Amino acid sequence: MLWQNLPDKSKVLFNKKVADIVENNNGVEVFLSDGTSEKGDIVVRADGVHSTVREKMWVRANTLEPGIIDVKEKKGEPQMKNELSVVYNKGHSFLLGTQPKRCFYFVFQRVREPWKRYNRPRYTQEDAEKMAADVANIPVSETIVFGELWRKRWRGAVIDIEEGILNRWFYGRTVLVGDTAHKITPNMALGGNSGMESVVVLTNLLHRTLASDSPSKSSLHALTQAFQAYQDQRRPRMRHIMEFSRLITRTQAWDNWFLKMMSIWVLPYLPQRKLANDLGEIIRKAPMLDFVPLGDWDEGLMEWEDMKQKKEPKQDGAAIGLFRELPLSALWVAMLVGLLFWGLSKTASVKSLAI
Fold first, then answer.
1. Which residue, among 265, 260, 261, has the nearest Cα to 250 in the 3D structure?
2. CA gap 137, 224 in Å, rounded
3. What are phi and psi of 201, to 5 degrees?
4. Would you say 325 and 275 are in contact if contact means Cβ atoms under 8 Å apart?
5. Per-residue pLDDT for 1 more than 80?
6. Minimal CA–CA distance to 277: which of 244, 253, 235?
7. 322 backbone dihedrals φ, ψ, rounded to 5°
């Protein structure tokens, strides 16, 4: 009856799909998937619970007035900025790296028990869908829940997050670098850098070996000495970096009650520069190629360890460093330190849903 009484049926368009909506001070233009467009004064949404038009509206709203659409009602994807963010939660955490047109994210979730190399599970796409569904309604920002990102994913899968350092990094004429020798959790993004550091140390040692006047400089004995020196230099530093990443990973996922207390009641009150300083302290101690001219460099806020004339006192560890600037009494600090080491002894392995 409504159709029959329409005065101008040409205004009703069938088999059309909205591709984009552009507003300006004079009106609105709706661009359709077939390449045509329609202009008007307003857009009235009536396209169901999974509304495309509503998502377009939410994007525009949060672009012009960030936060105006919150997670209680929003199911669209917000305007992305160039930033890195972390969301803490019980038993899992989110890590998001966003760009204007793409978002890369991880969901870290503890497994029931640690896997060994030969019995680790093989995850399927169904496993990924189930893991995503478990956290779909959990906010990853003030204006978005994880399910929105997962629904618009380009690809995604479940992978294991291994961690550990081998006792032996070489044998014969074979030597290991990077994740094959030292694997850490990715929360602090130190894995790739650590691999490059290992290459630098190994290259320095091989360069010295090959530059010597010894006629047996390429012998197995000479190479074994270089490989052993490489392993001896790298293992202590990688142990420190792994423990630092381990602590951050488990703190972000509230792996036990103590780490949850730390993330809620302690970390927010540390100076904003604290984590940056700890991370900078690790990075500035990275090795450098000792046979390549570096040229002139502008002096930064933190000097490279290799360039320092005077060696600074060695830190006791990343975990202890968290408390250096805490405005607490000595007794309270001592108690927290003791609980921290207890908490680290109760940690679990993790897996990740990555895209």
1. 260
2. 54
3. -60, -45
4. no
5. no
6. 244
7. -65, -25
Q: Which residues contact 244 (CB under 8 A, 6 or more apart)?
A: 188, 190, 278, 282, 318, 319
Tokens of 303: 């000097």
Q: Phi and psi for 232 in degrees, rounded to 5?
A: -65, -35
The torsion region of residue 350 among left (phi > 0), alpha (psi -120 to 50) and beta comes to: beta
Pick from 339, 333, 352, 134: nearest CA to 253: 352
Q: 330-344 vs 220-252: helix axis angle to the nearest 10?
A: 110
Residue among 265, 311, 261 at smallest CA distance from 285: 311
CA distances from 306 to 231, 284, 285, 290 (A): 19, 8, 7, 9
Comparing 33-37, 42-46, 322-326, the range with the smallest average pLDDT is 322-326
Q: What is the pLDDT of residues 191-216, one digit of tens each?
A: 888 989 998 999 999 889 888 877 77
Mean pLDDT of 246-274: 84
The Cα–Cα gap between 246 and 102 comes to 28
Which of the given ranges, 18-32, 241-255, 310-324, has the highest pLDDT on average? 241-255
Alpha helices in 183-263 (DSSP H): 191-211, 220-252, 257-261
What is the mean predicted confidence (pLDDT) over 20-28? 79
Element (DSSP H or E) covering residue 55: helix 52-64
Cα–Cα distance, 213 to 235 (Å, whole number): 29
- For the chain, give the mean pLDDT: 76
Q: CA 39 to CA 41: how far, in whole Å?
A: 7
Angle CA 72–76–78, to nearest 5: 95
pLDDT tens figures, 95-137: 888 777 778 888 888 777 777 666 777 888 888 898 888 888 8
- Name, in order, each residue with C-beta under 8 angstroms of 246's C-beta and a sequence gap of 6 or more: 163, 184, 185, 344, 347
The pLDDT of residue 236? 93
Please name the residue that has the structure tokens 């994913």.
Answer: 153
pTM equals 0.63
Asked if residue 78 lies in contact with residue 94, where contact means CB atoms within 8 angstroms, the answer is: no
